[in-house]
Amino acid sequence: MILALVGNQNSGKTTLFNALTGSNQHVGNFPGVTVESKTGFLKNDRKIKIVDLPGIYSLRPFSGEEIVTRDFILNHKPDAIINIADATNLERNLYLTLQLMELGIPMVLALNMMDEVRNNGGTVNIRELSRALGIPIVPISAINNEGISELMDRAVFVGSEKIFPSKWDICDDGPVHRCIHAVTHIVEHHARKAGISRRFAAIHLIEGEDEMASRLGINANKIELIEHAVIEMERETGFDRNEAIADMRYAFIEKICKDTVKKPKISKEKLRSDRMDHVLTHRFLAIPLFILIMFTVFFLTFGWIGNTLSSWLSLGIDALTGWVDAVLTDFHINPVMQGLVIDGIFTGVGSVLSFLPLVVVLFFFLSLLEDTGYMARVAFFMDKLLRKIGLSGKSFVPMLLGFGCSVPAIMATRTLSSERDKKLTILLIPYMSCTAKIPIYTLFCASFFPRYAALVMTGLYFGGMVVAVLVALLTKKTLFQGKPIPFVMELPPYRLPSLKSTLILMWEKARSFLQKAFTVIFLATVIIWFLQSFDIRLNLVHDSANSILAVLGKWISPLFVPLGFGDWRIATALISGFTAKEAVVSTLNVLLGNLSLPSLFTPLTALSFLTFTLLYTPCVAAVATMKKELHSGMKTFGMVVFQCMVAWITAFVVYRIASIIS
User: Fold this and answer.
1) Shortest CA distance to 502 belongs to which of 325, 368, 626?
2) Helical (H) or strand (E) element with 41
3) Which phi-psi region, left, alpha or beta, contains residue 107 (left: φ > 0; alpha: ψ -120 to 50)?
4) Exposure letters 247-268 (e unless 16+ CB within 10 A, then b)
5) Angle, to 10 degrees, between the axis of helix 220-237 and the axis of helix 175-194?
6) For residue 309, what are the contacts with CB-CB under 8 A and spacing of at least 6?
7) CB–CB of 553/396 below 8 Å?
8) Distance from C-alpha of 123 to C-alpha of 654, rounded to nearest angstrom
9) Which of 192, 213, 193, 195 is nearest to 203 (CA)?
């Protein structure tokens, strides 16, 4: 059995999904967090699959989320729909409920956050509302795990027994009613053949959806008949087609809510959120407070907490490396094989693993900010700034995800309805410093800027954002002309973060980091070790300067001489960083052997190197995702070249200015 979970953004849909499946799906408080559907099996029953569809407000196929949700329901035909609605804002949530009912699929309405409604003096007459809508309704509190088992029992029952919504016609006899019925008769045969509810098909044709006409295979004569019915409805109502349908739905919602809902008083959560927003979204204080909050996060992550944990893990890895080295020596293992294990695998992979605590701690704090609802506010007050560079606040969501990983961030641009905004956002995402670069920053800050590590980290993160702004200003009048799309979003109330959600995200990031360490980085480390251990005749070399790697590195190292780091080993590390940014650290550790970073860099060249690694092309996985989203190899290649040019120019400017100042 397949159950589809559908609801508005911020209705608690993903929290319910976690409660039902125990899945590692992260809960977010801003739109765009779920771009693709997520699946999981019901706890203790792998015969029931739950599909978590993106949060949407409507089934009109405008945004990427709406397209994903509608296509899944129409093409995969789930056994039942669980529609989750925010009981504290029922009028808005029921608009989507009415659209889902039109699909003619068994469904259950889950009224979430009923605990907040009760605590603030509100009530919902569940029985009467269920009778008015013609579908089963179950009151729940997903975050407190209340009513979940009853909801699942009801959903499984309606799905297995094929109990369809009993309420079809929600409008009184009038122009809209007559138009819907006329179009329903016109498309009845086509809808039955396509396996689509005739009422759903009729309403979407009235709303002027060409995609629905193509799906049903309706000829020009019937489209003309439909248009005549629509024109007659518009003439009689005085509304255009979309206004008339929306008015019909909202009139019905207003009527049933008046009879069944006693609105709660303004909640303590709402009052608290308003007071906090007076400060956190203040027109002058919002951005300085955001910078201060992020600086604090970096200070705690790369200072006392994260750095201490990372040091402990490094000591453990060093001890394990020493023990394995001693065992291999006692067993008289071939020196080449021992070099591969110790100098290649343990030195390369181990150097990256030691940064795992930093990644986990950083995402612990970011998850707290996300779950409280603060990150939604950041998207809100960044809209004004982003409009000045040719983007809307909606682009901030993918860019924010870029601080975690460029791959899901680039995929999240599917939520942008404008191709122009999508392409510009994809170009800028790599300038948001992903977590894969944390090992590079940490290694160099510890070696060259130990007293100012948090300041340098903050400078790198915000420096990437500044470069993104400058690039956007440069390209919005040339490559990406046009206006940004309008931005509308709902600000959720501030809530205490969920410990479960935070721990799930920490585990996801740790798992992703470990998978990369033992796959991509492991392979890159072995290849680097081989190339720096043998010459072009495959003879073992005692000096890596005579190796295959040195030959390759010396070909491209002149490009980096103006930036202050022309050594072939550095050039090689940057190339390996194309496989995964963490590989830069493992490559340097393998190539340096017993030497330290100051043998290759000075503080000035280290600053230039950090600037270049911040801005140059992302990893191969991100580039592949770019190609998939842009549907063009040439455009992707152009973006990669452009990003490398921006990185080179910026690093050159930073190096020259720093040289003059010093």
Assistant:
1) 368
2) strand 38-42
3) beta
4) ebbeebbeebbeebbebbeebe
5) 160
6) 357, 358, 361
7) no
8) 62
9) 213
Question: Which of 33, 51, 15 lies closest to 489 in space, CA to CA?
Answer: 33
Token couple for 383:
């809209």
The tokens 């990669």 sit on which residue?
640
Phi then psi dihedrals of residue 123, to 5 deg: -145, 155
Q: Which domains does the chain have, with CATH numbers?
A: 2-161 (3.40.50.300), 175-262 (1.10.287.1770), 287-481+512-661 (no CATH)
Q: Is 173 exposed, middle or buried (0-12, 13-18, 19+ CB in 10 A)?
A: exposed
| Separation CA 580–CA 128 (nearest Å) | 58
Give Cβ neighbours of residue 445 (< 8 Å, ≥ 6 apart). Answer: 302, 452, 453, 456, 457
Angle at 284 between CA 299 and CA 457, to 5 degrees: 20
Distance, in Å, from the CA atom of 137 to the CA atom of 84, rounded to the nearest integer, reads 10
Q: How large is the C-alpha radius of gyration of the chain?
A: 29
Q: Is 141 exposed, middle or buried (0-12, 13-18, 19+ CB in 10 A)?
A: buried
Residue in 659, 655, 603, 648 with CA at minimum distance from that of residue 456 = 603
- What whole-number distance in Å separates Cα of residue 361 and Cα of residue 307? 10
Neighbour count for residue 537 (Cβ, 10 Å): 7
Cα separation, 191 vs 103, whole angstroms: 11
Q: How far apart are CA 237 and CA 383, in angstroms?
A: 37
CA distance 230 to 244: 10
Supply 453's token pair. Answer: 């590590």
Distance CA 444, CA 362 (A): 18
- 109 burial (CB, 10 Å; 0-12 / 13-18 / 19+) is buried
Name the 3-class secondary structure at 432.
coil
Integer Cα distance of 110 and 132 in angstroms: 15
- Contacts of residue 516, Cβ cutoff 8 Å, sequence gap at least 6: 436, 580, 582
- For each successive 10 residues of the chain (662 residues), what is the average pLDDT? 90 85 52 58 86 86 76 91 92 93 94 89 92 94 90 95 85 85 92 91 90 88 92 92 91 92 77 88 88 82 77 87 90 84 75 75 80 81 80 76 74 71 88 85 88 87 90 82 67 76 75 73 77 82 77 86 89 81 80 80 93 88 80 89 94 93 84
Give kind and range of the element (H or E) at residue 340: none
The β-bridge relationship of strands 38-42 and 45-52 is antiparallel
In sequence order, the 6+-apart residues with CB closer than 8 A to the CB of 402 are 409, 429, 430, 431, 432, 434
364 vs 12: CA distance, rounded Å: 20
Place of tokens 């706890």: 43
Residue corresponding to tokens 């009530």: 123
